[in-house]
Amino acid sequence: MQGVSGAAAVVVMLLAATTLVLADYIQKSILCDDIAAICEHNGIDNQKNATECGENQEKFLNPEVCNCGSTCISNLGEGEFCYTSFATKYPTELCGPGLECIISDPNNPDLAVCTRNPARQCINETLQYEDDQAAGTLGPGQYKPNCDQYGKYTPRQCTPGGTCYCVNIKGERLPGEGSIFKQNNISCACSVHWEEMKTMGLNLGMRCLPNGNFDPLQCLDNKCFCYDEVTSTVSYGPFSFDMIENIPCYDPTIHNKEYINPCHKALEEWNNQDTNDTIVVRETLQPICTPDGYYAAVQYGGKDAYCADLHGNQIENFRQPITTAQNMNCHCARRRLIMEENDMGSSKPKCCPNGDFYPWQTRGLFAYCVDGNGNQIGVETAFTDIQGLSCYSDQPCDTSVMYSS
Predict the structure, then answer these.
(1) Tens digit of pLDDT for each residue in 7-30?
(2) SS in 3 state form for 82-117?
(3) In this structure, how many other beta carbons lie within 10 angstroms of the beta carbon of residue 134?
(4) Fewest beta carbons less than 10 Å away: which of 52, 205, 255, 280?
């Protein structure tokens, strides 16, 4: 069952307050499912509610109860003058998506302009990318971040010629990654779903695919159904778990009749190992799983941490002693593997022995510094001048240096 959103909670409180003050009105429910009566009772003309807005317009929801009397307002473009306050509750125009009304002259608070706010990290990186592109100085490893209308990172971010990966609104990595050639099919919606669940302190949620999308086949409480993440609805079912192989969204290339992925299966076996009185005897370290039921990129065995594929197999020879592996992420190792699987092996990135990105990368005749996701930072230089890079070091993969910078 979905929780009540912040907006819905406000509506609930407003309705409750209205009921207390106006006792003669009998409220049907805590929801806005009797809008006509609610609007009439509060003296607001509901007949003017805008159902559809025209091109370059946005719906403005009346801040009063149940959005009675919503209207359409025009979007202002970048660089157009705007107002930071209005004499009436209904503005006639506002800055369009991705823009904010920012005062350009502190001495003249009435002079404000619709602007992409550079104080927001995603917007700032976008503006830097566009400046470099206009100046003809765009680096081979630079990418244009995807931002939403509020200047936050969208769930899917991509790196040039490599992969697309999932992030939260702050741009921090979430589980989920796939080939850039398949970016139009990567939504990262399930990765975001799990981020929200954890934020609420919950350890339950729907199952994901390795690329961060929702698994179209979902099973819960001995029932299975097909889930359409575009419409957020059950498109087929539910049916008994015994019928799992006959459900249309069952795909034998990614599903099995037990509906359990390799890491979750290994975790079950690990938890069910024999015990000797109160001492638990375990021959292997606990597997680390992601919400999709596959293995996380970093796994532990013996005295080392190592980079693993979705099935828990070590990727190449990427590993590091556990005592120094607390910041190890294996992003580079996973990208190399995905690129190899998608016939992009000739342009694979260079990794440190622990599977993290080498501090600098090369492409063609250029060399450049990268961040933890392999994206270019700073200005590139000719390969022959690589020692002039700010990230250059005689010990580039020394973890004490890598994680202190």
Answers:
(1) 333 333 333 443 333 445 566 566
(2) ECCCCCCCCCCEEECCCCEEEECCCCCCCCEEEECC
(3) 9
(4) 52
